[in-house]
Each structure stands twice: as C-alpha cells, then as structure tokens.
Amino acid sequence: MAASTENTAAHKLHAILSTVRESGGQTYAAGWAKALDAPWDSVEFSRRHSEVINLLFLTMQQINALPDHISSRTERHITGWWTAVMQPKANWQDTARPPGNIIDQDRLDHLASTADLLATHLGGTSAAPHGGDLANLEEQCREWLNILESLEDNEISSSLRVQLISQIQHLIWLIEHEAMFGGARVTQEASAVIGELAQATQTVTTNPENSGRWRNGFLALLTACTIFTQAAPVVQASIEAGTGLYNQIENTIENIGGE
Fold this sequence. Notes:
There is one protein chain. This protein has twelve helices and no strands. By secondary structure, it is mainly α. The protein has two domains: 9-122, no CATH class; 135-257. Mean pLDDT is 86; it is low at 232-239. 34% of the residues are buried. Helices cover 70% and strands 0% of the residues.
C-alpha cells in the first residue's frame, strides 16, 4: 500500500486555498466555486465549504499536538488562514475582489510548512494517516448500511437507525471526495462513526444472527480504519494473521459488547 505524504488536513486546506487563489475568476465566489467544483449558492457548495472549515478546525487542533516551541510559532498564522476561508468582511461577489487577493503567498507558504510539520510529527495517526487505499473502508461502510437497514424495528429505534445511516453515508461521501478533503478528515469521521456504533451497541437488542453481523461488522470497520491510518506492513500482517493488534481489537469489541 502506497503511503501518502500529503494527507493531512493542512495539506488539503493549502491545496484548496491555492486553487481559489489561482482560479483566475473575477470574484471570491467564482474562485471558490471552481476550487470546490460546485455551483455558487448551491447546497453542494455549502456542504463542501463546510468541509473546508472542518479542515481548518482539524489543522488548529493538530497544531496544539506539536511540541510547544513549534506550535507557539505556528498558531500565530491561524487567524490569517481563517480569514482566507471565511472572508467575514468581504462581499464574495464583489468584482473588485479577485480570488488572487484571498490570501497572500507568505501565509500560504506558512500553511504548507505547517502541513509538512504535522505529517512529520503525527505520521501514522488519524491526523496524518499513511494509507492510500480506502476501498476496504468504503466496503465496510456499505456493509454497515446493509446491517442497519436489515434490523427489525424492535431491534433498533428508528431515530438511532436514521442517525447512524446518515453519518455513515457522510463518511462514504468523504471517502469518495478524499482527493479534495484528504485522509485525515476521513479518519476523523470514521472514528466518530465507530464511537457512535460503540454507544449504540449498548442499546440495540438484536437477534443472534444480527448480533453476529453487528459484532463482525464492528470488527471489520475498526480494522479497516486502523490499517488505513497506519498503513504499515506489520500492522496489516498482524491483523491478517489474527494475532497482536487483531486480538487487541477483538478484546475491545468483547468489552463493548459485554459478552
């Protein structure tokens, strides 16, 4: 599995802001529409721009995980990146504000340097996953949609089912748009889904067959996320051999399931 060296939220934020800046349009709105490949003032544009805000928030969180002497130098640039993403005082359709003015090159360069620092210090974590293949994770997400849709009404509440399906569908959407928003955003959402499923395990009452599907599905999803995050041969070999990390994951599921 090929390792990604530009898979952090900061790398993807840098790429998007660079595309806006270099779009050649007449307005901020036109530049953002080109960068996000979605029509301005559409629901899809709002969805994608919201994910850009998530990238900024992730970057801010991850800067705090850096050594103090690095984070203190880096965090001073956050306000400039936030202003570029939000432009709170600008009319986005003002032709006097071309996309080239949305952020200056120095701030972009600082963002790129920050992204490289995060990749170096946090590599192999959810902040900087090493994986390059999300096919297995997507497959497990689609299996979970099948599991949730197959449960009877007396096994899971309708509100919980709808909530979990919606969250998993959004994770699939992020996987499909990984080139734009990156692996770090995928692993963040995957972790949230895993947490929601773990909590749901405490309240869902399944028959023996569906109980096995739920348990196996949880194991498969957690395993797929772990492999993508670390993407190390020793990790995958351990899981495939049914030893080491695999047993740790299985023990976690034992505790969650209370069996």
